[in-house]
């Protein structure tokens, strides 16, 4: 029986919790195992995300390579067409018989080359726009998947 100083009441039959070392050891072991499992799951997810990102970059690089080849071929074709048009124009200028014929031929050539240049620029612009969309799609898809995974977690 214990007495509290300044009071006349006594405390009886107070149960104190007993410390069981085997239970504490088991709880620590369970917490450690749970931590290891969570770490394994996190590593597995990280590895999967890294592989997805690597595949997206590989796909993007392959698309960039394909696009580079297509742009190069279209540029070479445009340069060839412009060079052939220039040589044909020079041959026509050599055959000119009067200054008025020269200026008429020159004006027609310049107008035609401007029109051709606009078409060539639009063609290259379309190829580059499509290439940008195609090249960014794998990375954009991987990023959206990762965001969905983060929202779900």
Key phrases:
153 residues; mainly alpha; 84% helix; rod-shaped; Phasin; Phasin_subfam-2
Structural write-up:
It holds the Pfam family Phasin_2. Residues 51-141 form the Phasin domain. This is Phasin. It contains 2 helices and 2 strands, in the order E-E-H-H. With 153 residues, it is mainly α. It has one domain. The mean pLDDT is 83.
In short:
The protein is 84% helix and 3% strand.
Approximately what portion of the residues adopt beta-strand conformation?
under 5%
Q: List unreliable stretches of 5+ residues.
A: none
Structural class: mainly alpha
Number of domains: 1
Strands across the major sheet, in which order? Answer: 1-2
Sheet bearing the most strands, described? Answer: 2 strands, antiparallel
- Quickly count the helices: 2
List the topology elements.
Layout: E1 2-3, E2 10-11, H1 21-94, H2 99-152
Antiparallel strand pairs: 1-2
Helix pairs in contact: 1-2
């Amino acid at each position: 029986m214990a007495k509290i100083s300044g009071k006349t009441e006594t405390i009886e039959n107070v149960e104190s919790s007993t410390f069981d070392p085997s239970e504490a050891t088991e709880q620590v072991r369970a917490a450690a195992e749970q931590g290891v499992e969570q770490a394994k799951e996190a590593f597995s997810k990280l590895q999967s995300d890294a592989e997805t990102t690597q595949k997206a970059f590989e796909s993007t690089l392959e698309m960039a390579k394909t696009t580079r080849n297509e742009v190069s071929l279209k540029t070479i074709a445009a340069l060839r067409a412009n060079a052939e048009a220039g040589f044909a124009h020079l041959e026509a200028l050599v055959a000119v018989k009067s200054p008025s014929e020269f200026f008429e031929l020159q004006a027609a050539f310049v107008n035609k080359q401007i029109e051709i240049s606009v078409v060539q620029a639009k063609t290259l612009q379309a190829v580059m726009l499509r290439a940008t969309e195609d090249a960014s799609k794998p990375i954009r898809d991987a990023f959206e998947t990762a965001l969905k995974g983060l929202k779900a977690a």
